[in-house]
Amino acid sequence: MTTDDEDSARVLNIMQGARVGPRDPDGHLAEILIALDPSSEASLEHALTEIVRDAHQG
Amino acid sequence: MRIRVESDPPGPLSLLQELPDARLAMLEGLNGIGKTLTVRLLQVCTGQIPYDTDSAAWRSLCEGLGQFTVTVSGLSGGSTITWRGDSTRWEKGPGLGMDAVSFDNLQIDGLDATIEEVRRRLTVARVAGDEGLIDTLAQDADSAANSIRVWSRRFAAPDAGPLAALEKAIHEVADPWQGRAESRNRELSVDIEEKSTLVDELGDRLADSSSTVTALQTAAGIELELSQFKQRAPGLAAHLSDLDAQIQVALHAREALDKQQAALTTKAAFAGPARKQLQNARRTVQRNRENLKHATYAAAAFAGSLVLPVDDPAAAEAAMREQLDEISNLERRQTEIHAVPAMRGLLGNLATELQAAESSGLGEQVAISDEGGTYALSVHDTRSAFLRRREELEGDTPPPEAHDLTEKLEVGRRRLARIKALLEAHESAARHRRLVATNEDRVTSALVVADPKIEEQLKELDSRRRLSDDLLLKLAAERAGLQEQLGGSDGSSTEEALTAQLAEALADADSTRGALAPDLLAGEAALDHVRQELATADKSLREARRERSQLNADVRRALASLENAEYRWLREALPESLHVVDGKGEAALQTYDAISETLRRALDRLGVFRDQAGALTGALRGLAEHLRGAQVVPGLYSESLEKWLSETFSDWFNLERVREQLLPEATTVAVSVKTREVIWQESAGERSRPLEAFSSGEQAFAYTRARIGLLDEASDEATNRLIVLDEFGAFISHDRLTQLMAYLHDRIAARPGDQVLVILPLSRDYAEMSETAIGDEAKRYGVLAEQIRSREYAVQVLT
């Protein structure tokens, strides 16, 4: 595991810890960002699809 | 492993040049020689940021350290790691983490390497002896806050990185999706209906007002004409009387000549055919003179009404050129201030051309398209659009100035028509004059009789008759022109007629002669006002129509863009019910609004994420300060993170190693960050203790042992580890230190990759101790005293 991976895992853990209600930190978005490779068109499109689909479902 | 540090700090900072190469050693030194700073540098070299990169401590390290070279050799596996760098080039600022650090050169065994590769070979752990339990817990909360900041900087920076890439992509696609199309369309439809009603009402008012002004202007025009007539009538009447007298004289002379000519013709002995020929020639001359008279009268009447010379075709031609220029200027000015008539003409012409193209089978061919291919209009669609636009323009109200120009143009065109008629009359007169001359020659030729004397007399009489006819025609033409100026040949402009016309016009205008001028001024002002109101209302109506057209066009274009390959991801994200692309009707507007709202929510979600990260950081920092005893106002997430930290710290306390050291009687332990206390269960029941109580004496020693124990249990993939127990002696008494050393000595065998260094402040005078001691002990103290003297610190190797 790289230091970046460790940082990401720790941030997700903190966000999980702060999750108590509708104004929770967006851990799912954090996961999308961590998985995203901005230099890859396919990766970007996949992330965008997921975000817009979530937004539409409210 | 052997650790060497070469540096030349530009300021007052100092560094140790080397650390002892021993599995367990104790380093005692004077304050200010760089013991802790050396360890901090080693932490940075192995991928740990020991300070917040926005803190004064970090700035001091960056600015005070300068150029350095760190070499670690003799690592397990035989590797040598070398770092070279210049700390003055390291970055300072919030949330930078290891991104703040760069090395000029980082090599493992002479080959370029990364921090990740370094960390697989070597890590550095610093256990601070001057930090109690509260400090550790607070630092843990601070560290969590720092992790969020560093991570956010990498993943959620506003200008680059994953979040910015997503925002950019959605912004690019979201631009045409502004939303509120359905409600705006409804608002505009209501607005257009109201404005149309207003324009219709103002149009009616304009017609009424215009009619009133026209009647007043007619009356004013007649009044002016009457007044001018009265001014010029006396002179003209005298001239007319004079002309009548001259005409009477000429008529008498002509009659006398006719009689003489008739008598002489009777006396003359004409041959039968010759007499017949003379009669024919004279009849033809008479007919031509009649035609000439009519043409000349007409020319005189036109010239009189145009106030031009009666018999001057050149003057009429000059007047026509002048009138054409004036009309051309007026038309150009009219196009400038009110392009509608010109545009309607242009659109009509284009539509006609396209109609012809459609008739030739070109109706479905593309006539207009934009560069990007967003839209394409067929010949048929283009023609329909031109005709629609032409129809739209029909209702356009011209500005007030345009109305004046239209009236001037009408007057100018009427005058031009009269000038043309004058020129035609001149031309007709000239033609008949030529015919008269030709036929007079025929009469002269026919005057051939047996008696030469009589023939000569006849010719002389005929010549005088011609001159008399010419004079009569000239006088008659002059009289016709004069008569036109005096009131027209039809008698419509006589003083009586004009007076009657004025009375009728005043009645139509509902005015009187005395009130005519003020009534006209008031009427024109009211007309201008209505015109301006109508122009404003019409402009507003056109703008509303244009906005509604633009709105619907935008909706059509946006929905059509969903078909583009580059927005495939957007189609995939939307449900089938929103895959509407025909772009018409309420359904299209609703779909457009739904997609706009979805994109807005997606952007909001991305934007809010940064605020969330900031709120998490703030809450964790606040909790750290709360743990340190400060009064902190809770913020967003404070409550949930307080519980989370409490659970995390409770888990740590419940580790067997920690519980055995700190609370050996406890069965379960819980930490309350909120009340800053530790609560545990033991056989005697529930007990609690404030966090401060774990910061001194035996508890501090136990706490340190617990922390070292946890290091031993941590999964660390590095093959070498330097553990530094720094600043010991602050809380731990000397006898406890002996116990700690024994503990460290005992664990060496089980940790072959560890090298442990205990750093203490110098608290003993080894020189004095060497003098009072005996034997080997005196010698050992002497060596330590010498080390202190030469390099300000002493090292005791314990293994």
Structural class of chain A: mainly alpha
Strand content of chain B: 5-15%
Distance between the termini of chain B: 14 Å
How many DSSP helices of chain A? 3
Strand content of chain A: under 5%
What is the H/E order of chain A? Answer: HHH
Shape of chain B: rod-shaped
Number of strands of chain A: 0
Number of strand segments of chain B: 16
Radius of gyration of chain B: 58 Å
The interface involving the most residues is between: A-B, 36 and 52 residues
Quaternary state reads heterodimer
Protein architecture, described:
- The complex is a heterodimer of chains A (58) and B (799).
- Chain A is mainly α and 58 residues long.
- Chain A has helices spanning 3-17, 27-35, 41-57.
- In chain B, strands 2-1-4-5-6-7 form a six-stranded antiparallel sheet, covered by helices on one side. A five-stranded mixed sheet of chain B has the order 8-14-15-3-16, with helices on both faces. In chain B, strands 11-12-13 form a three-stranded antiparallel sheet.
- In chain B, α4 packs antiparallel against α16 and α7 (272-306) runs antiparallel to α11.
- The A-B interface holds A 2-4, 7-8, 10-11, 14-15, 17-20, 23, 25-26, 29-30, 33-34, 36, 38, 44-56, 58 and B 47, 97-98, 115-116, 119, 144, 147-148, 150-151, 154-156, 161-163, 165-166, 169-170, 568-570, 572-575, 598-599, 601-602, 605-606, 608-609, 612-613, 615-616, 619-620, 636-637, 639-641, 643-645, 647-648.
Q: Any chance you could write out the topology, listing elements then pairs?
A:
The complex is a heterodimer of chains A (58) and B (799).
Chain A: H1 3-17, H2 27-35, H3 41-57
Chain B: E1 2-7, E2 18-19, E3 24-29, H1 35-45, H2 56-65, E4 67-73, E5 81-86, E6 105-108, E7 111-112, H3 115-121, E8 122-128, H4 133-155, H5 162-174, H6 181-267, H7 272-306, H8 313-337, H9 340-359, E9 366-369, E10 376-378, H10 379-394, H11 400-446, H12 452-486, H13 495-508, H14 516-561, H15 568-573, H16 585-627, H17 638-653, H18 656-662, E11 668-672, E12 677-682, E13 685-690, H19 697-713, E14 720-726, H20 734-747, E15 754-761, H21 766-772, H22 775-791, E16 793-797
